[in-house]
Amino acid sequence: MTPKLPSTSKLNEEQLLELARKYSFRSRIDTNAIAGPIMVWGRGSVVRDVNGKEYLDFNSGQMCGALGHNHPRIVQALQESCETLIHSHMSMFNDREIILASRLAEITPEGMDRSMFLTSGSDSNEAAMAIAKRFTGGYEFASPASSFHGMNDSTRAVTFSGWHEGYGPYAPGHYPIMAPYEYRCTFCKDRGGCDYSCLNTSFELLDVQADGQLAGVITEPLFSAGGVIDLPDGWLRELKRKCEERGALLIVDEAQTGLAKLGTMWGFEHEGVVPDIFTISKHFGGGVAISAVITTDEIEEKVSATGLVVGHSHSNDPMPCNAAIASIDIILEEVLVDVAQRIGAYWRGHLERLAAKHEIIGDVRGRGLLQGIELVTDRFSRKPAYQQGKAIGRMCLENGLILSVRRNGSVFRFVPPFTTTEAQLDQAADILDHAISNVI
Ligand SMILES: Cc1ncc(COP(=O)(O)O)c(C=O)c1O
Question: Which of these CATH numbers, 3.90.1150.200, 3.30.420.40, 3.50.50.60, 3.40.640.10, describes 84-333?
Answer without folding.
Answer: 3.40.640.10
